[in-house]
Amino acid sequence: MPTCCYPYISATKGFFGNATGRGWFMNVIADSAKESTGQLIPARRQRIQQSRAMIRWWLYVVCALILAMVVVGGATRLTESGLSITEWKPIHGVIPPLSEAEWEEELEKYRQIPEYQLINKGMSLEEFKFIFWWEWGHRLLGRFIGVAFFVPMVAFWAAGRIEPWLKPRLLLGLALGGLQGFVGWWMVASGLVERVDVSQYRLAVHLTLALIIFAYLFWIARRLTPLSQPTETETARLSGLSKLVFAFVFLQMFLGGLVAGLNAGLTFNTWPLMDGQVIPKGLFVMDPIWLNFFENVMTVQFQHRVTAYILVFIGLALTVATFRVSSRPALRRAGAHVGGFILLQAIFGILTLIWQVPLSIALVHQGFAVIVLAAIVDHMALLKGPYPLQSKA
User: Fold this and answer.
1) Same domain membership, residue 323 and residue 222
2) Per residue in 190-221, pLDDT tens?
3) Disulfide check for 88: which of 185, 269, 270, 390 has CB 3.0–4.6 Å away?
4) What is d(CA 68, CA 283) in angstroms, rounded to the nearest whole number?
5) Residue 223 — very low, low, confident or very high, per pLDDT cuts 50/70/90?
6) With helix as H, strand as E and coil as C, how does the chain read?
7) CA–CA separation, 278 vs 281, rounded Å?
8) Are residues 256 and 379 in the same domain?
9) Same domain? 244 vs 376
10) Is pLDDT above 70 for 110?
């Protein structure tokens, strides 16, 4: 067979016909071998790092919006605005009343619920508009967060910017956001019949789920950052305490939701004593006893106080331990943030209590709780390290 007719089957040049072709083929095999062992070629590594930078900043923006949502939600509750919209219209509810007749229609719906009949009877249209706009803004911000998460996710997905292992994690975040919308309405619905406010149980669940979503997305964003790797000593000596602080932060936020739902901050407005005592009488007057932890105003506030003391102690302990164990500037900074922010949050809580829940300081207290959560998640992420630049993580 003449080699002139089949130049690519030359005995001397090989299947690709020349040294350049053979070199290209060997390079492909080498690159594939590198990827299979977890090594990445420079161009692919650079693209992944660029993609991660874009994704983490997008997630940071979503987290900032969730923080704003928590603050707006607190304002909606403190202004007694949460029940002003008595229907759940995920799509049509975006458009507020545009005419006087539509405003009168909304007010008439509000007149049918116990809150109006027992507390706000005779409310004028202008007064109704004030509480309506708070609740409408709260719901609109929730929809905006959904769009701010979904649209960029689709764009990044279509552009091939999302690594395979990250896709299910982002889909879970989307699902949690959808669930939060249902939980929000479930909470509001509890206040439309037979009571003048929402259930403290449902309010606490609604708040806690928002914080779960925040922590989950912030955790992903931090680990998409090219952090320094933790040492074995740091992981062994700090991880347990860091997780304990994280658990207590979440517990305290849930208890804060119960305090808010029962308006418990408007009672026993003294500190450090409560009702003139270290341990007040009347903590367990309800039967069965467990009911006191959720429905007894005194007990709910007392356990929120005690948990705060525990949290300050273990938060400062984590700060000290971090400085003793680690020399990494980033981890030391995170440790200082945890203890310092928890202490500052406790001060905000005390001021909120003794000043009888003024709107401004109460919103600072609620919003800063999310900052505390971000601080402990950051500390945990630094102890875990970044997601590896591999096909799996």
Assistant:
1) no
2) 888 878 789 999 999 999 999 999 999 999 99
3) 185
4) 35
5) very high
6) CCCCCCHHHECCCECCCCHHHHHHHHHHHHHHHHHHCCCCCHHHHHHHHHHHHHHHHHHHHHHHHHHHHHHHHHHHHHCCCCCCCCCCCCCHHHCCCCCHHHHHHHHHHHCCCHHHHHCCCCCCHHHHHHHHHHHHHHHHHHHHHHHHHHHHHHHHHHCCCCCHHHHHHHHHHHHHHHHHHHHHHHHHHCCCCCCCCCCHHHHHHHHHHHHHHHHHHHHHHHHCCCCCCCCHHHHHHHHHHHHHHHHHHHHHHHHHHHHHHCCHHHCCCCCCCECCECCCCCCCCCCCHHHHHHHCHHHHHHHHHHHHHHHHHHHHHHHHHHHHHCCCHHHHHHHHHHHHHHHHHHHHHHHHHHCCCCHHHHHHHHHHHHHHHHHHHHHHHHHHCCCCCCCCC
7) 10
8) yes
9) yes
10) yes
Q: Which two tokens stand for residue 314?
A: 């273990």
> 111: domain range?
42-226
Residue 188, amino acid: V
30-75 pLDDT, tens digit each: 444 454 444 557 888 888 899 999 999 999 999 999 999 999 999 9
Q: Provide the token pair at 51.
A: 């993609």
The pLDDT of 251-268, averaged and rounded, is 95
- Does residue 70 share a domain with residue 217? yes
66 and 28 inside one domain: no
| Residues 3 and 61 both lie in one domain | no
- Could you tell me the two tokens for 28? 């492909």
pLDDT score at 344: 98
Tell me, yes or no, whether 104 and 216 share the same domain: yes
Which has the closest alpha carbon to 83: 49, 39, 118, 51?
118
pLDDT at site 390: 66
